[in-house]
Amino acid sequence: MEVELAYVVSILVVLGFVYRWLNKNQDYFRDKPIPALPIAPILGSTGSLLLKQVSLPDFIKPLYDKYTGSKVVGLFDTNIPMYVLRDPELIKKIGVKDFDHFMDHRPLFGKNHADNSEMMFPKTLFALNDQKWRSMRATLSPAFTGSKMRQMFDLVRECCESMAKFYRDEIGTKPGQEYEMKDVFSRFTNDVIATTAFGIKVDSSKHRDNEFYAQGKKMMKFDRLSVALRILGYRLIPSLIGPFGLDIIDHEQRNYFSSLIKEAVKARETQKIVRPDMINLLIQARKGLLQHQKESEQNEGFATVEESDVGKVRVSQQMTENEMIAQCLIFFLAGFDTVSTCLTFLMYELTLNRDVQDKLYEEIMETHQSLDGKPLSYDTLQKMKYMDMVVSEGLRIWPPVAAMDRLCVRDYVLEDGEGLRFTIDKGAGIWLPIHGLHHDPKYYPSPEKFLPERFSDENKSNINLGAYLPFGIGPRNCIGSRFALMEVKAIVYHMLKSFTFERTRNTEVPLTLTKGFSGTLAENGVFVEFRPRILNASA
265, 275, 479, 509: which has the fewest C-beta neighbours closer than 10 Å? Predict the structure, then answer.
């Protein structure tokens, strides 16, 4: 009898412990003067995303719209408390002025594993924390200035010309053909990354199954079950999962890309090869030879983010070989997906808004004629005002990253100057609801309409910079904004010069977005016909 009673008591104790553990977060926001989403055991407030019932933009937008009278909203992302900032002034305050309290991203894999020699992702600029991040940002920042983009532009232009020629040749034998834009532009961004970050030339439009592209596609499959389980495991039980040293980048891709970089570096150092690309810049950075220099004033686009003082500090610390490889990998991960996503949705909007497409084509032809037979240059591209307006509006209506996060690294008292005051605890996170801000009629009248004139010289001064965040805000903004914008504008120039973009019966309107945390993706693809321009077929 006593044994049975002890057995029952033990079960009740265990059940009580489990119940308490499952519901420990229910009272977290109760003493905060802000509204909060319901919190479910394990799943937190984001169960619909984890279970792939809704897309990330379609999760962010209703959340943002529901609490119109609140500057901050609380929720739990699995077991992590998050504060969703709806107010541009608070976003600027936390993202810039009080950045030192929020300098890190939430760790994808529990504690930072940058010192683990086998793991690559934790060594990337995106994943590094604290002083390691500061040092790496300052080391890499000089590689992404306007002058460095100007040096690399010829490599990007070659990829653009090659892609445009491929489709001109193919459509010449297969007229009326439609293409899926994410596939088209993933191949383009793959080729750009291959030549600028790995020092090799591939043509993924023509050679569709080349190994560089195939390995990259495998590495980009973040929705695969193994990666999802790793991330969820690190969030829920980091002390158990952490020691296994699991990386988001699988061994096969890590070894493949690492060997490419090592071979390229060895060849350049032994043969004294100098090429205007990212490997050359990283070799200099690795030796501590790359330093920030004062740039002349130039207009590089409304969406371009400026480097903060963090990136302009002189550093003497040298990169290890693995750290260098890791930066090439994050360059691939960021450039492959976000740039191709931006281009996919921009092409969608140009296809549906023929008046915008025609007006942009007029500017392209004026620019083309002004070159008088010379190839497009970086400086000429920056002078195209309507191009910049179109791209800026594309990034507003379809930001590739629907929400951005930061981690509170020490307790922070949030005050808005109007009576709102509470403490954000160390270890909590914040969400910047970019998709919600970009579609708020308070900042963008008729937000669902594609209107490049929002970013004209007359109107862009009215844009609240805390409500326009395609590349983030503050010292931890996207280091590659100049490169991304250069790439986007260059390929739009070359493709629109050769083709009109036409809607087909498979062009879905409105688009259905992929469900889950996978970012902004079209579930059924974005299909467009490239129709050759007769007068410019040989341009």
Answer: 509
Using only C-alpha atoms, the chain has a radius of gyration, in whole angstroms, of 24
What does 340-375 look like in DSSP terms, one character per residue? HHHHHHHHHHHHH-HHHHHHHHHHHHHHHHHHTTPP
Residue-level pLDDT at 539: 47
**CB count in 10 Å sphere of residue 163:** 24
Taking CA atoms, 146 is separated from 134, 386, 505, in Å, by 21, 20, 41
Q: Is 1 exposed, middle or buried (0-12, 13-18, 19+ CB in 10 A)?
A: exposed
pLDDT (0 to 100) of residue 288: 75
What are the tokens at 473?
């805000």
Per-residue buried b or exposed e for 503-531, using 16+ beta carbons within 10 Å of the residue's own CB: eeeebeeebebbbbbbbbbbeebbbbbbe
Check: CB of residue 382 under 8 Å from CB of residue 301.
yes
For residue 24 the two structure tokens come to 């420990």
Which positions of the chain have pLDDT values less than 50? 536-539
Encode pLDDT of 372-421 as tens digits.
999 999 999 999 999 999 999 999 999 999 999 999 999 999 999 999 99
For the chain, first and last CA: distance in Å? Answer: 92
Task: Report the SS3 class of residue 71.
Answer: coil
b or e along 442-474 (b: 16 or more beta carbons within 10 Å of the residue's beta carbon)? ebbeebeebbbebbeeeeeeebeebbbbbbbbb
In 3D space, the residue among 303, 279, 277 whose CA is nearest the CA of residue 481 turns out to be: 303
For 468-492, how does the pLDDT look when each residue is reduced to its tens digit (9 = 90+)? 999 999 999 999 999 999 999 999 9
* Token reading at 447: 């937000």
Residue 458 has what DSSP assignment? T
- Give the CB-side neighbour count of residue 16, counting CA atoms within 13 A: 6
Q: How far apart are CA 69 and CA 221, in angstroms?
A: 38
Dist. CA 385–CA 372, nearest whole Å: 20
Instruction: State pTM to two decimals.
Output: 0.91
Q: Residue 100 is which amino acid?
A: D
CB 264, CB 283: distance < 8 Å: no
Q: Which residues contact 525 (CB under 8 A, 6 or more apart)?
A: 180, 181, 182, 183, 506, 508
What would the pLDDT profile of 184-224 be if each residue is shown by its tens digit? 999 999 999 999 999 999 999 999 999 999 999 988 876 65
Query: Residue holding tokens 């579609």?
Result: 439
DSSP symbol at 74: E
